[in-house]
Amino acid sequence: MFPFFKQINKSPLLPQVVGSSGKVYTCYASCHFCSCPAFAFSVLRKGDNLVCKHILAIYLSRATGACQEQSISNQHLTALLLPEEK
């Protein structure tokens, strides 16, 4: 699991984490939200955890400086925030 942060022009960072399965999850650490199923189940539904491992990875990577920043276009941002359903 390696967090990376996408800088959209000069807008705030959009944190994304590559999970252990290789899937990329978009995390909104500022409001403690992640798009992973574990967050929906363990945090939102059951209330067993405060955050998922992806948000924890973001906090740890920020604290240790072990994150990568990538610049993306507005079109790429739109695709990240509004993915096409399969």
UniProtKB/TrEMBL annotation:
Question: Ranges for the SWIM-type domain?
Answer: 25-63
What's in the GO CC field? Shu complex
UniProt cross-references to Pfam families, sorted A to Z: SWIM
Print the keywords alphabetically.
Metal-binding, Zinc, Zinc-finger
Superkingdom of the source?
A: Eukaryota
Q: Which GO terms describe its biological process?
A: double-strand break repair via homologous recombination
Asked if the record carries the keyword Ligase, the reply is: no
GO terms (molecular function) for this protein are:
zinc ion binding
InterPro entries annotated for this entry? Znf_SWIM
Task: Return the PANTHER family for the record.
Answer: ZINC FINGER SWIM DOMAIN-CONTAINING PROTEIN 7
The protein, known as: SWIM-type domain-containing protein
